[in-house]
Amino acid sequence: MKYIGAITVISLTIAITLSGLHSATTFIHGYVYNASDSTALAYADVDGRCVDVVGTFHTTTNAQGYYNVQQDTLNPYPGGNWRVTASKSGYQSQTKSVQLPNPFTNVNFYLMPNLE
Q1: Are 61 and 109 within 8 A, CB to CB?
Q2: Can you tell me the distance from the alpha carbon of 107 to that of 28, in angstroms, rounded to the nearest whole number?
Q3: Contacts of 108 (CB under 8 A, 6+ apart)
């Protein structure tokens, strides 16, 4: 019994160590809103491009207009100046310049409806 318990403990220790090396952290997050009435825009696109070096991301807001870009600790996004754009059909896109990484980068967007 002691032999089996030791193996179990070793397996658990290895699993914890490996999961600690490969984790995700928030790179950038925020909300996308309708600028005319401040309601959240569900399923809007959020795209980022690093100006300094090669690096991009793409995500979509959830039903509450929230987006959260995670970065993997083993393969992080490059730091530097980023241009982040939110867009949605029927709205004018908005682009912001952001210095990343920043551990508390919250970038909200307010998109104006197209006048058609």
Answers
A1: no
A2: 7
A3: 30, 31, 32, 33
Q: What are phi and psi of 28, to 5 degrees?
A: -160, 145
Sorted by where each starts, the structural domains of the chain and their CATH numbers stand as: 24-111 (2.60.40.1120)
The token pair that represents 42 in the structure block: 């569900």
Taking alpha carbons only, the member of 87, 84, 115 closest to residue 102 is 84
Distance of CA 41 to the CA centre of its chain: 17
Q: How many helices (H) and strands (E) does the chain have?
A: 1, 7
Q: What is the pTM of this model?
A: 0.76
Closest CA to 113 of 30, 31, 37: 37
Token pair in block for residue 27:
């790179």
Between CA 63 and CA 95 the distance in angstroms is 21
pLDDT (mean) for 1-16? 41
Q: Are the CB atoms for 80 and 99 separated by under 8 Å?
A: yes
| pLDDT > 70? residue 116 | no
The answer to whether 57 and 50 have CB atoms below 8 angstroms apart is: no
Tokens in use for 28?
Answer: 């950038």
